[in-house]
Amino acid sequence: MRELVKQKQIIMQDHSLAPEAKTHQIQNLCLTHSSGPVLLEDLALTFTYSPSSSVFGFTSVDLVNSGADIEVNIENVEEYAELTTQFCLDKGIARQLEAFYKGFSMVFPMEKLAAFSPDEMCMMLCGDQNPEWSRDDLINYTEPKLGYTKRQPRLFKIR
C-alpha cells in the first residue's frame, strides 16, 4: 500500500502532466503481485483491520466509524494506509508494549535508568556490536587450543 501511495504522490507532483493525464495514470495504478498487477479496487478492502491471527482476540476492527461500509479506493488509499499503520503500531500493540514495559521495569526500573543516555543504554543491553580487536587484545583475551600457543609468531597475524 505504501508503494502505491508513493507512486500516486509522484504522479500528483509531476508538473509536466496535464490534470487529465494525472487522473488517468492514478486510476490505472496497480499493486504488484506474484500473479501480476492488481487494481486496488479488485481487493475489495474496507476501512477495517483484520489481524493475521486469532491470537489478537478479535477478527476485525473499524479504523473509522462504520469503516466496514467504506471501500478503499485510489482516492482514499493514503488515509487507509496511515490509519492501518497507526492502528498496528499504536493501538494494536498497546497491550504488548505495556506488558513488555512492566516486565522490563521489574528487571531494570525506569527511574534508575534515567541517568543513562540512549547510547549508553544500548551499549549496556546489547554490548558493542562492532568491537575493534588489537593483536594484544587477542593474545590477552583468548586461549589457543589444538596445539597452538600464544608464543607462535604467526598465530595472531592482524592486517
Automatic annotation (TrEMBL):
Keywords: Transferase, Ubl conjugation pathway. It catalyses: S-ubiquitinyl-[E2 ubiquitin-conjugating enzyme]-L-cysteine + [acceptor protein]-L-lysine = [E2 ubiquitin-conjugating enzyme]-L-cysteine + N(6)-ubiquitinyl-[acceptor protein]-L-lysine. GO terms for biological process: proteasome-mediated ubiquitin-dependent protein catabolic process; protein K63-linked ubiquitination; regulation of signal transduction. Pfam families: HECT (PF00632). One of its GO terms (molecular function) is ubiquitin protein ligase activity. It is an enzyme of class 2 (transferase). It comes from the Eukaryota. Belongs to the UPL family. K-HECT subfamily. E3 ubiquitin-protein ligase which accepts ubiquitin from an E2 ubiquitin-conjugating enzyme in the form of a thioester and then directly transfers the ubiquitin to targeted substrates. This is E3 ubiquitin-protein ligase. It comes from Aromia moschata. The lineage of its organism: Eukaryota, Metazoa, Ecdysozoa, Arthropoda, Hexapoda.
